[in-house]
Amino acid sequence: MTTPAPVADPAGSTPQSEPPAATRRPRRPRRTKLPYWLIIPAVSTLLIGLGYPVTWQIINSFKEYGLAQQFGQPAEFIGLQNYASLLTDTVFWTIAARSVAFMALTALITMAIGIAFALLMKAIPTWSRIVLQVAMLLAWSMPIVAQMTVANWLIDDRNGVFNYMLSWIPGLDMVGHNWLVEPLSFFGVAMTIIVWASVPFVAFSVYAGLTQVSDEVLEAAQLDGAGRFQTLRLIIMPIIRPVLVILLLLQLIWDLRVFAQIQLLQDFGAAGERYDLLGTYIYGLGIGQGQFGMASAAAMVVLVLTLAVSWGYVRSMLKEDKES
């Protein structure tokens, strides 16, 4: 049996075979510059809002301010002397270590309580969940000055409700006790106020993440014999891990820069500046003592510390973006 000859092209050309698909060059996706144009307003606003203050702080950190500058004399440029004096000061390192410990403990407690409230909102009926959400929303929206006023009314050493209720315990007389004198009780009160105001944000955010967990995944885990704790640890937590990471990062940054609560507690109590954190320490250097150069240098150190805290998350984001 003979193979039929190929039909000749009318133009007289010989037939050619198609090139194999593997040798074809894939078309590159057409890149558009629209995303870059869309982020220009946000980047411009950020540069305008932060560029001038940060530049002003950096320049002032290399200058020395004293009594002469209050009468119009220009500040003297002293180079890195402010940084050298600051980084060799044991008081600064003590306050920095105290601030880092306060930041870590407060953020972890806030995350633990917030996750617990989120799981509670997921488990309870609708009407009770709405009541709980409204209560937490009111606590979260309360201004800091109002929070501190209520806290001062609760822990006042003469007419405080907390001391009065503790005195009901037989053999315990807490009337007249000042909670703002000892360092542990001072920072315990500050931590309680900050955690109380921060838990609603964490709870709402985690609850929103929990609502995105598929019911089919949970049912499959239940059919495989996984208990509630195993389901939470091995399935739910890995799914909402991105939400937990960004919440923990935000809490660390916010708790490192805490200022108003500590400053107002210092005004309420008799300890004064003995229980400074980095925020109140910088405020005392600049506004209280007029050492704007040292205060600017301390602010730059806090900025570097904040970037170090957030660098882990930024690196993970860049890694995920590169893999995708």
Automatic annotation (TrEMBL):
It comes from Demequina zhanjiangensis. The chain crosses the membrane at residues 34-54, 95-120, 132-155, 184-210, 231-254, 292-314. The keyword Transport applies. InterPro entries: MetI-like, MetI-like_sf, UgpAE/MalFG_permease. It comes from the Bacteria. Its main location: membrane. It is found in: Cell membrane. It is a multi-pass membrane protein. The keyword Cell inner membrane does not apply. Belongs to the binding-protein-dependent transport system permease family. Keywords: Cell membrane, Membrane, Transmembrane, Transmembrane helix, Transport. Residues 96-313 form the ABC transmembrane type-1 domain. Residues 1-28 are annotated as: Disordered. This is Sugar ABC transporter permease.
